[in-house]
Amino acid sequence: MLGLTQQQLADLIGVTYQQAHKYERGINRVSAGRLFEIARVLSVPVSYFFEGLDNQTGRPVSQRERMCLELARNFAQIPNERHQEALSQLARALATRH
Hints:
Layout: H1 6-13, H2 17-25, H3 32-42, H4 63-76, H5 81-96
């Protein structure tokens, strides 16, 4: 939303591009201290990253939501970035067709 690249964010929080990429893909967990630093750099409260969690309605997850979560998990496990990009382009192309 701020228009920062991964490299710019990595520089701002004092990590390598590779580490920031691993945070984004969910490969490495973000420690509480690092989350605080990210929030500080982005000028948001730490609670920003948890918005909506306290308003959980307990409603069942829809089949569509379940498929989206599964798709995201599977995508994150694709080791080849070229394959990830190809899949992303395919999804984009399918989404634009009516």
